[in-house]
Amino acid sequence: MPPDDLHGWGHILRVVDLCEEIAHEELCDGNLLQAAALLHDVGRGIEKEPVNQGKHHAELSEELAIPFLAEIGIDSEEIGAIINCIRGHSFSAGAAPEGIEAQILSDADKLDAMGAIGIYRMALYQAPANRGMRGFAEHLDEKLLRLKDLLFTETARSLAEPRHALLVAYREEIKREFKF
């Protein structure tokens, strides 16, 4: 896993917690969901290696998860279901999550990009690119403020409301202070 809190272990644990919170209200296979949540971003640690250029982290996560799951004795049907969740979790990959577990993982991953944590993660993401406050505002507009409309479960939509409201208020304050 990458050492940062952007996609590292802290992110994984928050997504696992969010999956559990959503799963408490939605009918799903909690064990399958937890396995997928723990492995959904494992490919992030190797995506910058030259051999992996052009591969999306979700694809790399699948490639790492399959042999690991087989090695620990997970049967092929369950591996397929876990991989389906990993494949469909990413906003940027564009693959639609198929099934409730995949939808919950996708929702939890999006929720972790919203609210105060989302603002913190956005700062970590934007700082190395040095795109300034305008780049920050563009990221808010292009991605974070759109996330609530991309959620699948009613539970996630409910959890998203205060997080989205904070993003909207933050964006308005940027407009006011920076005059754009």
**Portion of residues within helices:** 55-70%
What is the CATH C-level name? Answer: Mainly Alpha
What's the main sheet like? Answer: none
| Gap from first CA to last CA | 37 Å
Number of helices: 8
Taking all Cα atoms into account, the compactness measure Rg is 17 Å
Explain the layout of strands and helices.
Layout: H1 9-23, H2 30-39, H3 57-71, H4 76-88, H5 100-111, H6 115-126, H7 132-142, H8 154-178
Helix pairs in contact: 1-2, 1-5, 2-4, 2-5, 3-4, 4-5, 5-8, 6-8, 7-8
Describe this structure in words.
The protein has 180 residues and is mainly α. It has a single domain (9-178), classed as Orthogonal Bundle (Hypothetical protein af1432). Helices cover 63% and strands 0% of the residues. It is built from 8 helices and no strands. The protein has helices at 9-23, 30-39, 57-71, 76-88, 100-111, 115-126, 132-142, 154-178. The mean pLDDT is 92.
Label this structure with key terms:
180 residues, Hypothetical protein af1432, mainly alpha
How would you summarize this macromolecular structure in one to three sentences?
By secondary structure, this protein is mostly helical.
